[in-house]
Design goal:
30% of the residues are buried. The chain is built from 6 helices and 19 strands. The chain has helices spanning 22-25, 69-85, 135-144, 146-149, 165-168, 212-222, and strands spanning 3-6, 10-13, 29-30, 41-43, 53-55, 90-93, 118-122, 127-133, 154-156, 162-164, 169-171, 182-187, 190-192, 195-197, 207-209, 234-239, 242-243, 249-252, 259-262.
Length: 269
C-alpha cells in the first residue's frame, strides 16, 4: 500500500520517504485503518522499477489487506512444502540456489528453487519414502502449523545428521546450547553490524554472525540496503552454535545457502 500512518495520526506517502530517514520511521508506522493498526514497514523503490510501498500483515477484515506480499510469500512456502513433503515419511534438507529478486504476485511461479524430489529407502520390512525440502518451505510450515513443529517425522540435515522435526528444528525461545548440528528458526529481534540477534545481549539468546561476503549476497537476493532491514524478518538457519567470551551463543555463517528468510509478519498473528 502507498500510504501509512506515522505515530497513529499523520499520513505518509511511501514514494516520498527517503532512505536516510528509514531509521527515524522504523516501528512508528501502521495501517491507515486504525481498527487494524497493523505495523507497517517501508520498502524502497526496487531495482526493477517497482514503486516504494508500505507492507505489513493486516487483520482479516481490513480493507487494505487484500493480500500482502508477506502473506503471498508465506503461502508460496507452505504450498511448496505440501507439494512434496505431505506424501513423504521422512524429510531430507536440500541446499537450493539463492533466489533472485522478484515481485510477489500470486500468479508468478517460483522458478528459482530446486524442484522437490523423493527418495525410496528400503528397510528390512518396509519401504520408506523421503522427500527433499529447502529451508524456505520448511520455515513456512514451522510458522504456519503448530502441530508440525512437534512432529516426530524423521529429518536428515544437510550434513547427514539424523533427527526429527521436533528435536532438530528449534525455535529461538526454546534454544539450549548443544554440540550437534541443529536448525534454528524464529524472528530477528534486531540486526546491526554483522549480527542477526534474536534478543538482547543480557538474555543470551542465539545470534548469527554474517561475514561481509555472505551478508552482501543475502542483501542482494532480498533487495535490501543494509543488515538493519532484516529486523523483524523470519529466518531459519542450520549449523552448530558456540559461546562467545561472555557466554552468549552464536553461529558464524559461512554459506549463504544455509539460511532462508520470510518477510516480517504482525507478531500478534
Amino acid at each position: 500500500m502507498r500510504w501509512a500512518l506515522f505515530d497513529g495520526t499523520q499520513q505518509l506517502d511511501a514514494t516520498e520517504l527517503r532512505e536516510q530517514d528509514r531509521e527515524y520511521y522504523r516501528d512508528r508506522l501502521s495501517c491507515l485503518d486504525q481498527e487494524c493498526a497493523a505495523p507497517m514497514h517501508w520498502r524502497k523503490r526496487s531495482k526493477d522499477g517497482k514503486s516504494a510501498t508500505f507492507a505489513g500483515h493486516h487483520t482479516e477484515r481490513c480493507e487494505y489487506g487484500s493480500k500482502s506480499d508477506e502473506q503471498i510469500e508465506l503461502q508460496r512456502a507452505v504450498e511448496e512444502f505440501n507439494a512434496i513433503a505431505n506424501t513423504a515419511h521422512a524429510l531430507v534438507i536440500r541446499l537450493d540456489p539463492l533466489p533472485q529478486n522478484r515481485t510477489a504476485t500470486e500468479e508468478t511461479p517460483d522458478t528459482t528453487r530446486a524442484p522437490g524430489r523423493t527418495h525410496q529407502h528400503h528397510g528390512a520390512d518396509r519401504q520408506r519414502r523421503a522427500g527433499s525440502v529447502g529451508y524456505g518451505p520448511l520455515l513456512g510450515m514451522l510458522i504456519a502449523d503448530p502441530e508440525f513443529r512437534s512432529s516426530r517425522r524423521a529429518l536428515t540435515l544437510s550434513d547427514r545428521t539424523r533427527t526429527t522435526i521436533a528435536d532438530g528444528c528449534i525455535h529461538v525461545d526454546d534454544f539450549t546450547l548443544r554440540s550437534t548440528t541443529m536448525i534454528l528458526w524464529g524472528q530477528v529481534h534486531h540486526a546491526r553490524g554483522n549480527f542477526l540477534d534474536t534478543g538482547y545481549m543480557n538474555e543470551k539468546k542465539p545470534a548469527v554472525r554474517l561475514p561481509k561476503d555472505v551478508l552482501a549476497e543475502l542483501l542482494k537476493t532480498k533487495n535490501l540496503s543494509g543488515i538493519s532491514d532484516f529486523t523483524g524478518w523470519h529466518f531459519i538457519i542450520e549449523g552448530r552454535f558456540q559461546e562467545n567470551i561472555k557466554g552468549a551463543p552464536y553461529m558464524s555463517l559461512d554459506n549463504a545457502q544455509k539460511i532462508a528468510f520470510l518477510p516480517p509478519q504482525n507478531p500478534a498473528n
